[in-house]
C-alpha cells in the first residue's frame, strides 16, 4: 500500500492544537533532510 499526501491541498490548521500539545510535551518534529537518512534518524 502506498500512501500519498497532496501537500498543496492539505489544510494543517486542524492539527495545530495537537502539534502544540506534542511540542509542549517535549516531542521534536524534524525532517530526514535535517537529521540525515540514517538508521538513528529513522
Question: What do these coordinates show?
Answer:
The chain is mainly alpha-helical and 42 residues long. It is 31% helix and 0% strand. It contains two helices and no strands. The protein has helices at 16-24, 32-35. The chain is flat, with a radius of gyration of 13 Å.
Keywords:
0% strand; mainly alpha; 42 residues
Q: How would you characterize the largest beta sheet?
A: none
What's the overall average pLDDT, rounded? 89
Broad shape: flat
Q: How much of the polypeptide forms β-strand, as a percent range?
A: under 5%
β-strand number: 0
Please tell me how large the radius of gyration is: 13 Å
String of helices and strands:
HH
Number of helices: 2
Percent of residues in helices? 25-40%
Low-confidence stretches: none
Class from secondary-structure proportions? mainly alpha
First and last CA, distance: 20 Å
Fold topology:
Blueprint: H1 16-24, H2 32-35
Summarize, please.
The protein has two helices and no strands. With 42 residues, it is an all-alpha fold.
